[in-house]
Amino acid sequence: MREAYKFLSFKQREWLKLAPLFIVICYYLFNTDLKGRGSMRRRISLPLKLFFIVFAFVLSCIILISQLSYRYVQKEIRTSDIYYTNQILDKVDQYFTVNFSSFQTILFSVESSVKANIDNTDVIKKQLRELYELNSNYVSNIYLIKSDLSILGGSTPTRIFDEPLAEREPLFDAADKNRRITFVSDPYKSKYSGWTVTMVRYLNGAPFPMAIAVDLDLNAIEETLFKINKKEQMDLALITASGKIIAGFSENKGPINIQDHTFSIGETSAEQILDTTETSLQLHTKDGIPVSLLKKPTEKFNWTIISINDESRLKAALSRLETYYIGLLAAGLLLSLFISFFIAKYIRTPLYALKTKMKRVEQGLLTTTISINRNDEFGDLSRAFDRMLQQIVELIRGAELHNELERKLEIQVLQSQINPHFLYNTLGSISNVIRLGQIEKVDVVIESLISILEYGIADASEKVSLRQELQNVSDYIAIQNIRYNRNFHLIKNIEAGLIDFPVFRMLLQPLVENSIFHGYNGGGIEGPITIHAYREGGIVIIEVVDLGEGIPTDKIKHILISEPSDVEVKRKRIGLNNIHDRIRLHYGEQFGLQILSIPKEITRVQALFPAGSFKGDA
């Protein structure tokens, strides 16, 4: 990561420093509230949070993509630069390969000429001179080295000064030891050729020891390298296996330190560069300037071509690229602002509409309507909110109607609990019993009446057990038997466990009264009255059965309508519709009364209750 960071420009590093700031902003927006003046807290609204988050996210993505793209392009440019430099090095190597072949041709030409004219020194000198003049652009001298280290030279100075020189001894010895190959010397300072490299080959077949030598014109080679350096904006040089410079680097004033034809880059010496097996190196000068180094061994010479690039071409290309990326980041900034504003506005409009609607509802305006015509989650939420308000209004209205109806029904029950007609008829029955001398029945009537009166004056909304209702019905039938001088036989058929089932007060008496007045013609005939209580599934059914006249089918559906008849109102009886409505109001529409009747045979009036109401309801 540190190495990658070094290759980023100053502007890019500054952009990268903004990334932690974006992260801190997002974290702050999600987890904290801003303090307002004094002790008040001012929360950041959701659209504003969303604006900053989207802005930070989009801008961060653009910066990240830009940086990745920049790094990718930088890598591609660097790869292309290395590839291009390798192509240049290959061309230079080909140049030296051609030169080596030329020098070899010169050596072979001299060898053939000397062998053909071994006894004619003047001809040999002439041919050496002609060969030198023909190749003077590439060589400094062409000559023969004798065993006494004197020479026959082709250049003008060596044609005059042919005395033995000690500098020729290593060349002659090397040729003598390697008679089958051409020996290439290290660069050295020659008396007549200057800074040069000598290619020497032993002259086999001569009558006396002799070697053919060609001094290379390193200045010409160096000028060729300088032309490439200038054209391609790179530094090229030839170095030997020992790290000495043959040609190149002379005009360089940059990162390379040249002393005595050796060089080093920063803390890395030429020997260390040659010892490494890598062909590409990234180094730094003593001033910390990064440079790229490529090396390539020549094919024919025991030399290495070194290319050092201070990345000037790369920097120039990246400088042009940075301008483009700065424009891209500026466009990304504007795009981030636009996208963030658009998304925040897209969320803010319906959100504020819902917020306004909720404030009005909070103030009690349940009929408020603010339409949000959108086919998305906000539209669904608005429509669901409207439906919820409508349901709440309907529930409130229903609850008001329910309470009003329940009050009316309970008032009707209270009014009917002490029925003047019932008291009048009961007292008349007592008078008749006394007149007929049936004194023993008086106590029965009085006790039953007292029980009914005590039972009737209690709270009508209070629930009682089925046992209490059965006792009240028994007292009521006892009085009616004496009043009508009939035997309305009460039969109780109660399933085990239901004797304490909770029911409404005054539930059974109106049903039994209905059987006597309608089924048995108001006492005109007599018959049994059976009360059943049993479970069926999750329902408890309490039914009153008589074997009287029955109810016509066309009248059954009108009996349970919540409009009492004039007769019932005058007599202040509790109608079947009252019981039916009380059960439905308390337990639900699926419960209430059901009437099953076969005229002249049987009538069943069933009261349906949920079985779950038995638990702790009484």
From TrEMBL:
Entries under Gene3D superfamilies matching the protein: 6.10.340.10, Histidine kinase-like ATPase, C-terminal domain
Keyword Transferase part of the UniProt annotation: yes
Key words of the record: ATP-binding, Cell membrane, Kinase, Membrane, Nucleotide-binding, Phosphoprotein, Transferase, Transmembrane, Transmembrane helix, Two-component regulatory system
Membrane topology, from the record: Multi-pass membrane protein
Pfam families tied to this protein: HAMP, His_kinase
Compartmental location: Cell membrane
Domain HAMP: 345-397
UniProt name for this protein: HAMP domain-containing protein
Organism whose genome encodes this protein: Paenibacillus pseudetheri
